[in-house]
Design a protein that fits this description.
With 205 residues, the chain is an all-alpha fold. It has helices spanning 6-23, 29-50, 54-63, 75-80, 83-117, 132-148, 152-180, 182-190, 198-204. The protein has 9 helices and no strands.
Length: 205
């Protein structure tokens, strides 16, 4: 049972927050406001996963569903009345998280190399999507907060976080246009923002 493990909730929250800020550190105070949305999600999500299963309590209390706090408070296990549902969701969710984390790490590595050399990064993962770090972030949140361990907060927060970081990506692109001009315009026309096109996927396989 995960319920009541507040010490573990604090430890996991600190570790995940450090990783997020390590690879997605805000550059200005306005960006910290968007990061605050992500931080709130992290705190609330792991507090519910390891502390108190608020989603199950809410659904059972206000919608009359026959849910208990078994299986550590995992919603899939409760809805399907089987621990197998939790295992399947965990495998699928962590698979998505792994892909997302790989995108974040690879995007971070390449973009920092490009900043040191003051060049436009357009190869590697950046030849397929313009913002791999944000795509990775979306996959991490979706895999963990929607697929693996859905809660009311995580499901509601997911589109808000996507909207906030989409706005941030557009702001960054305006800065890139000022810096690289026509070179970035051509790159933007050629490469999708978050999701690679089917043609790009076929060429890379």
């Amino acid at each position: 049972m995960h319920v009541g493990m507040w010490g573990l909730a604090v430890i996991v929250t600190v570790i995940v927050s450090w990783l997020m800020y390590r690879y997605l550190a805000p550059d200005s105070w306005k960006e910290w406001a968007r990061a605050g949305v992500l931080q709130a999600f992290i705190i609330a999500f792991y507090a519910e996963m390891y502390g108190f299963p608020l989603t199950i309590y809410f659904l059972a209390r206000f919608f009359g569903l026959d849910l208990e706090w078994g299986e550590g408070g995992n919603l899939w296990a409760q809805l399907f009345d089987s621990p197998v549902a939790h295992i399947v969701a965990m495998i699928l969710g962590y698979g998505i998280v792994f892909i997302g984390a790989s995108l974040v790490a690879e995007g971070w590595r390449r973009i920092h190399a490009a900043r040191r050399e003051n060049v436009l990064m357009s190869d590697g993962i950046y030849a397929h999507i313009r913002h791999p770090q944000y795509t990775g972030l979306f996959l991490i949140i979706f895999g963990e907060g929607v697929v693996h361990w859905p809660t009311i907060l995580s499901v509601l927060a997911f589109p808000i976080i996507v909207a906030a970081y989409t706005y941030l990506a557009k702001k960054e692109e305006r800065q890139m246009l000022e810096q690289f001009g026509d070179e970035y315009r051509a790159y933007r026309r050629r490469v999708p923002m978050f999701i690679p096109s089917s043609d790009m996927i076929r060429r890379s396989t």
